[in-house]
Please model this.
Amino acid sequence: MEKKSSWVVPDEIVAYYKKYENNEKMVTIENFLLPECYSIIDTVGRGAYGVVVAAKNNLTGEMIAIKKIQKAFDHKIFAKRTLRELKIMRLLDHENILKLRKILLPKSRKDFDDIYLVMDLVEGDLYSIIKNSNALEQDHVKFILYQILRALKYHHSGKILHRDLKPRNLLVSKECVVKVCDFGLARITNDLTKKKTDIMTDYVATRWYRAPELLLGNESYDEKIDVWSIGCIFGEMLLKKPFLMGTDWKDQLMLILKFLGKERTKDTSFIENSNAKTFIESNSKTAGDGFKLFEGTGADTDGIDLLQKMLVFSPKDRISIEEALAHPYLADFHDPEDEPTRSPVDVKEFEFEHEQLNKEQLKDLIYEEILLYNFKEKEEEYKKTLAEGKSVVAHVLNNANKNYDKFETEDDKNIQEQN
Model:
């Protein structure tokens, strides 16, 4: 039997957010609680953190995607990940990055359990396309690779690392337009955010696409981790299958060492941990001829050269995004005037990363993030607070939800038992 939390949202919190309550008529459709104007057409994706459906706006006739984020409030870690992703998606505006159009307004702060994201509907993803070996010609590979790099140039200029690039997180339309998605593991890299409480050593990147510096436990790294991931994806498009499929972190490293060979892995100066450095020096013994795998894939010498420059062991020698875009392999598409950048994101947007907030306080901040899409005056107030250099979380730090600390451990235990 499901155990209910004994925590009740305090009256003070209910009163604070009362003016934002949603009185619109809602209907339940296939376990989605939606405004009446939407009809669900089909389920197009399902994962550990959510379900995505294709839906129709009956008022406009437009087809859209709606993602229901599940388990966002099961644990503080999930809530923090969700808040981070929602903020990053709001701050990114690029045609090769999936646009978050709107977040549906919950009934109230008290009745707030699920999150519904309204996004562009994209027919497929790169994972599915690669599985269909007839779908990828060399021109497709070039165009897809170019668009991925174009998206990364933009969000890297904003000081945002994706950290989980893989074929499933690259949506591809029928017209071969790429949209990078799933920023749940992303981080901003501004120096002000690099505090000991936020050492970036948690789970990042699906193992097969994880850069050597991450596998080796480096606590500091940069945008070159995304370049390595793109290199793995590029190679996978050429081979029409993954080629570095480690069963654990150690096996993944051994596959990389075998693939690159001793000569290409001799620079270990970037490795922070002395034991990790010894491991590489002891196991990097083969001549390495991994790039021969790509002979006969249809890739020309320029393509193989770009792949080799992306899959460089040492991040300091790995090609940059700008250099990759300017590489001869992508000459048909490269246009510096049409590869936009943005200013670094305001670190104050992410000050929650360094505060000791419980799950209910994070829930307050997620609720406020939703309000920005639904109330113009709330959005203007938020922008004014940032412009004045003031904190956007100070009002939450000592609100009545701080008392949830006493209930959090018990609630987490109950949820773990139910799962």
